[in-house]
C-alpha cells in the first residue's frame, strides 16, 4: 500500500518511520522539503485513516507512530529504490553502496560475506 501513496504522503510516512514516533511539528521539521503545519497534520490524518499511522496523546500534543514495522517499510523502500535506480539488481545496488567510500568493520564484512554465500546460486 505504501507504493500507492501520493509522493508527499509517502515522504511524510517514511519520515515518520525514520523518526519512529513524532508530533506533526517534528515530522515537519525533519522533512527535506518542509510543508506547512496544516499540510503535515492533514497528511498524518490521511495516513491514520488508511491504517498506516496511529496517534496517541503526549505531553506536547498528539504523537504519531507508524503502524507497520519499520523493517517492512525499509524493505519496501529499498526494493523500490533498487527497481528504480538499479534495474532491479540488488548486486548493482550493493556495489554502489560499497563504492561510496565508507569503510566496513571486520564484523560488517563478515556479515556481508555470509549473506553473499547464502544468496549465490549453486553451480550445477
UniProtKB/TrEMBL annotation:
Belongs to the BlaI transcriptional regulatory family. It comes from Caulobacter henricii. Keywords: DNA-binding, Transcription, Transcription regulation. GO terms for molecular function: DNA binding. It comes from the Bacteria. One of its GO terms (biological process) is negative regulation of DNA-templated transcription. This is CopY family transcriptional regulator. The lineage of its organism: Bacteria, Pseudomonadati, Pseudomonadota, Alphaproteobacteria, Caulobacterales.
Amino acid at each position: 500500500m505504501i507504493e500507492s501513496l501520493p509522493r508527499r504522503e509517502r515522504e511524510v510516512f517514511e519520515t515518520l518511520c525514520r523518526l519512529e514516533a513524532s508530533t506533526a511539528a517534528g515530522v515537519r521539521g525533519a522533512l527535506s522539503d518542509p510543508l506547512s503545519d496544516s499540510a503535515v497534520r492533514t497528511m498524518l490524518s490521511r495516513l491514520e485513516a488508511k491504517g498506516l499511522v496511529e496517534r496517541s496523546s503526549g505531553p506536547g500534543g498528539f504523537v504519531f507512530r507508524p503502524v507497520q514495522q519499520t523493517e517492512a517499510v525499509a524493505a519496501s523502500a529499498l526494493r523500490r529504490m533498487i527497481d528504480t535506480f538499479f534495474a532491479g539488481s540488488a548486486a548493482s545496488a550493493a556495489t554502489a553502496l560499497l563504492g561510496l567510500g565508507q569503510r566496513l568493520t571486520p564484523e560488517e564484512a563478515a556479515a556481508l560475506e555470509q549473506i553473499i554465500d547464502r544468496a549465490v546460486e549453486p553451480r550445477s
